[in-house]
């Protein structure tokens, strides 16, 4: 067998296990051991790493944030039982671990230096307004150093730090085999998010917390909570208690104001900003449960005349009761959003003009009639969002299909239909969530049911956006692909989306992870490497497998991306590759 | 809104919650309450239902088996906290449960009558050799009766019994709202299985136990364990200890003889026969770890010249060392299989003729050369299987592609390529596992990785058998479709397959359930109803959703098949249907 290059690649591939890949990294092959009494300093002061240190916000100090990060990072390293046998072949099992000798070189200090000052806005900063970069070094003699301009950068550095270490199978010892290490790192995109839909299925707090943890491990910094839709309204609004009382799937399946605050703080402390979306004026039928006077077409049938999926329902337009209701809603909710986020998402996708035919105040599906009404609606409500100190985000239909006039300076548009360039041409800042690449829910079939007379039409019952997007496809997507440089700058980042028609707590982890991580590397490290080449799956796969294994150890039920044999052969990336030129290397 | 029929369907759909659907069932709408002191008799004798009653086999008595079933059924009813709020709309939440009044009608007795005698072979019977039918009745005044010819039938009846009951949210009360009930039930197909691949990923015992439980709840009666493949050999063979010592992914990831016995007994007590497959002569490369002299092409590259996926590897043909090795293997393993199964699966899929070019004793890929060698191989080894009192099962390639001469009376052929009729024409008994319908692993993308130069060729990285098979497609498949009646009789049943290239304990439940249940209903109840009409998704969906909810309550992470709103609208099946003729009803 002719495989000289496999050996070379083997060395290269085992070189770095960090996910997402740092922008710049050098490393050696010396072993250092991490002692549980490692002395940690922050800007020169001793920092204890009490397990589970959790300050209460939003009036944190930078030290609070960093100490929380240190507590979690050390807790992960020492608390996870991550012996990476699964990353090594059978033959390597006896040799992949360093010998536990008495003359260990210990990492005795971790010196954290924050070179800049955080502002009170650091932990809720808009895209580009906080410096997330960091440096991390580990000298051969055991001195670890982290430097960053912001506490956010320190948190990222600490997550990288955790990925350097493994547990030893022979006892309570933790080591890194890659010293000395020098890393300089910073994100390519400022907005790196996951959309979680808590309306089509409800997710208990523990699922949201676990997801926030997993996002932070992958250096993703946004959790976009699609909080309401036509199906259910789980978000408790104290001034409008009837909305969730009647609109949640069950009276117990709500997020109280305290829950929301806990979610926001849990995220903020992990450098994950939580962004709340109330989708409107479509996708809000559930208000028909508590406020039938405000909506039209709720559960109207056949649904496909009125909306994209059952149950239908949209706000009435040009209606003062709606305006007043939203005023009350925003007055209640937005002051609870603004301490933790720069953004509020007002939805705006898939509005079906037919709905307004059922609106007694409109009775038309003529876009010429509807457009000015919609313009008023957006002006009024985006004005309210801005008055609360927040930047509105809207789905692209408002900007493209309805051509609503919105100020590009103060509005962010989220694209899902693949029309990023149409938006950047208009000067909008864009979040890319191209469904052809980054919709994590796609490809598992219809969730509608079909009577026998419809079977022939819908056979074999595939969904609209399948097949499932494999990690390789997710990894291939660059949100700025094909854009001129000036327009590329407007793309603040992207989100992968976990629409929850067929996702609930039972299967969420398996569908989100590790595929969201594939997008995380594109968004953090960039689709192209330092040489301008597309990042290769051969380099990525072993690292993603390792990251997945770490995540499973930490309690996230991430799916395997390949068989165990291939994971163990990770050091030989050609083992499970389709090698077009087997003798060409 | 015009939906008179919705109301009618609503009543019809809520009528029966049993999965899979009984062949015949009548029911009422009276509520009966199940007391924890229900008196149970078996053939007239008092039967205690000690929780967790677990006799040791294989020398069970029928009473042991029934008592185990009673223990589990009552344990499920009283132990699950299955308050079915999620099956009812918001409006129904206050009313769907019966009032907890003092004048309850209690079910005070469950009288189990087994009309036939079990033989020592009952719990390992071949297809068609045990009567699985049962009757179950519940009178309006609270007398429950189960009748069955075999203890297997009693076990099925008990599983149906559990599905009649719900927990009351108001306290420790359990009720059925559907009395009186009369059920006559029996399976359409005798072989109703799941293939679980424990070679590409290892599954701990708890995952196998949980899967056996879930199979039994769905009245599936076969767990086909694909125990070995080229990737790993987790099955410990005491007379050949080196095979798993060197062939398991890790020395700890093995099934000991005790493990195997425990799996077999756990299944047998639940009417699930465990069938072991050792795939050969292909798909056995892993022997190269312990017995390189027996295999060719182990991890040969590029893999696609030698086999379907890495690592390659096949047994040498016409080789006395191989014959001797298999003799030792079978002598060790088969006596441990035969107490619990009528079958032993010898594999036989995807043998690549090129492998024998590397075989020093053959040096040819000419099928005319190979076929007689393969004939000898099958003759010898199927002879050994039969000598051990077992019926060999082989994959279809042996019968079709290689046209090996095998006795249809004493050989079962498993079809995955959709060629059932070719096999029945030859007179073989057939297990149908058509990959276009019943492969549960398909459609989530490639698990190989591709270097940048191969991206264009393999983009968008779909796997070979996608897209994912939705439950509706699985449900549409009749294993006897298009067969003349005489040949249809030869189809003993089917299996859904969970090949584990990208399935491990993290995501197995989500991919197997409830989709395996869709096949379970086809196999138990038949694809066609009593009127000869294909069973409708509109009838099936609410029942499958309920079954899925029960399974989640019982700790199986089955995936949702639709959004929560549709589940709650289950009583109105048109709510989440694509209604081609909205005004035609």
TrEMBL record, chains A, B:
Residues 1-17 form the signal peptide. The active site is at residue 350. It catalyses: Hydrolysis of terminal non-reducing N-acetyl-D-hexosamine residues in N-acetyl-beta-D-hexosaminides. GO terms for molecular function: beta-N-acetylglucosaminidase activity. One of its GO terms (biological process) is glycosaminoglycan metabolic process. CDD domains: GH20_HexA_HexB-like. Residues 18-164 form the Beta-hexosaminidase eukaryotic type N-terminal domain. This is Beta-hexosaminidase. It comes from Zalerion maritima.
